[in-house]
Design goal:
With 241 residues, the chain is mostly helical. 75% of the residues lie in helices and 4% in strands. It has 11 helices and 2 strands. Strands 1-2 form a two-stranded antiparallel ribbon. The longest helix is centred in the first third of the chain and has 59 residues. It is elongated.
């Protein structure tokens, strides 16, 4: 076989250090020498990112533990319907030299944690019980981001209640339906669907109301909300089969 002669392109490649295995090997340190600052910079960036990830993980765990402790201390006020102290804390009482922090503080400071979102749900309910709907909505929306279905369920139900009080019945109905989809007990599902049906009925959407009332009866004909659903069907002029 005739040996191919080197052309100008081959000679250029050899001179650039990529024409032979020896020159290829020598090309690696040449590349590092030329681009050393970039490589070092990228390596440092990777190390920094790993460090930040570890820091955030540890911080999240510490924040969760801290929020859990604070939540435990303030819950007795919520359970006794002392909503002002539940929301704002009790400076007259201390644990290990620290004043009792309120649900607002816990939700605002630790809203990125699961416990912070639980605190937000309780804070929202406390605001709703004191007829402060705008404040309640803010904290229900924080709770809505919880990974726990039961917390998200409560958040949607709370948002729906606030919208219903404002006469925004169609919007309220949608949130009640969101809550029903997150529930896992027939009675709770029926409850939220009934509230949604009532809201649709109030908004003038009798077709949606009828559909929901029928779903409730089908879900559990002997259930608590079945008779209420039948009354709803009668009210909107639907013949019950």
């Amino acid at each position: 076989m005739k040996k191919r002669e080197l052309n100008q392109e081959d000679e250029s490649l050899i001179q650039a250090g990529v024409g032979s295995s020896d020159s290829q090997e020598s090309g690696i340190p040449n590349f590092i020498q030329k681009n050393g600052k970039i490589i070092i910079g990228l390596s440092l960036l990777v190390i920094i990112i790993i460090g930040i990830t570890i820091f955030l993980k540890n911080k999240s765990e510490n924040d969760s533990a801290r929020a859990s402790v604070l939540l435990t201390r303030v819950m007795e006020y919520y359970e006794k319907s002392e909503f002002d102290k539940a929301l704002n804390g009790d400076p007259t009482r201390t644990y290990m030299g620290e004043q009792v922090k309120g649900l607002k503080y816990i939700a605002d400071e630790f809203g990125n944690t699961d416990q912070g979102k639980i605190a937000a749900l309780y804070a929202a309910n406390a605001f709703l019980n004191t007829n402060k709907k705008a404040e309640a909505k803010k904290y229900f929306e924080i709770a809505e981001g919880s990974p726990a279905d039961v917390v998200k369920q409560g958040a949607h139900a709370g948002i729906a209640a606030g919208l219903e009080l404002d006469g925004k019945y169609a919007e309220a109905a949608k949130h009640y339906l969101e809550a029903s989809e997150l529930a896992d007990e027939d009675n709770i599902i029926s409850r939220y669907k009934f509230y949604a049906g009532l809201c649709f009925e109030k908004s003038g959407d009798k077709k949606q109301a009828e559909s929901l009332y029928k779903e409730i009866i089908k879900l559990n004909e002997m259930g608590e909300f079945s008779s209420l659903a039948k009354a709803g069907l009668t009210r909107i002029g639907t013949i019950i089969e």
